[in-house]
Design brief:
This protein starts with a strand and ends in a 10-residue tail after the last helix. The longest helix is centred in the C-terminal third of the chain and has 19 residues. The protein has about 300 residues and is of the alpha/beta class. It is elongated and about 70 Å long.
Length: about 300
Amino acid sequence: MEKTPVLVLAPLPDFLMEPLHAAHVCHDYFHAEDKNALLTEVGAEIRGIVMAGGSVSPVPLLERLPKLEIISVFGVGYDGVPVDWCQDHGIRVTNTPDVLTEDVADTASALVLMTSRRLVAANRFLHAGAWTRGPFPLAHALRGKRAGIVGLGRIGKAIAQRLEAHGMSVAYHGRARQEVAWEYFESLIELAEAADFLIAACPGGAATKHLINAAVLTALGAKGTLINIARGSVVDESALIAALQSGTIRGAGLDVFENEPQVPEALMQCENAVLLPHLSSGTHETRREMARLVVENLAAHFSGEPLLTPVC
């Protein structure tokens, strides 16, 4: 069977690239020294794109691929894909939902624990030999605190269930009230005022860019901690740095940033912030399941079968 030409827009793990190479002719756009020359050479034949959740497929690129039929995203987030444009041009889009829900929710709950109990600082304290000179300062318990979740989708619900097990109450904000037991806040500002931990679990993209801004952080206040496992674009990073430096909020736990992998030096210098390198879905088990969905979505499309996880 003739292999289908696809364009790869991001560095991808070997356990995804191996089955892709087996089924397709893969052209590495991400690492190409002369991207324009690559598109001139193969653009007219490309029928599929494979990209990571944090990468971008801009319209000017897609316009150079006249035979493009499908974009398969290795990730649950697809804010880098111009979905409306794809719909208008008959291009299918898939992502990898569900399989990473549990790992991302685990990371969010871990960040809540790490920030409330100051576990990273405690680890540094011990390694520095400071324990011999006295105990580590007291931190804060989770029981009785309120988690305010911004975006109650699959991941938001999984986070809520974990934090309830820690004795926390849960409230949420989203586009609409849902049939759940948790309290709904129509206003994000009011949710921030009521929350001890404000947890961003919403999609990225233009609709949520800087949704959590200086006004929201002020409402969260000195009792509050911001957790972000969504997209870096959801938080106004400059406003967050100012809030951390001034004590406007107590702390932050972040797995995502506005310009990954670049993290502002001022943010890295904030001792009241726990920072992770976008690893929330980073387990062998989850990433292999994500890879399986990417490969099987492409196979389904090119064999005329229904897509497993369509976006459009």
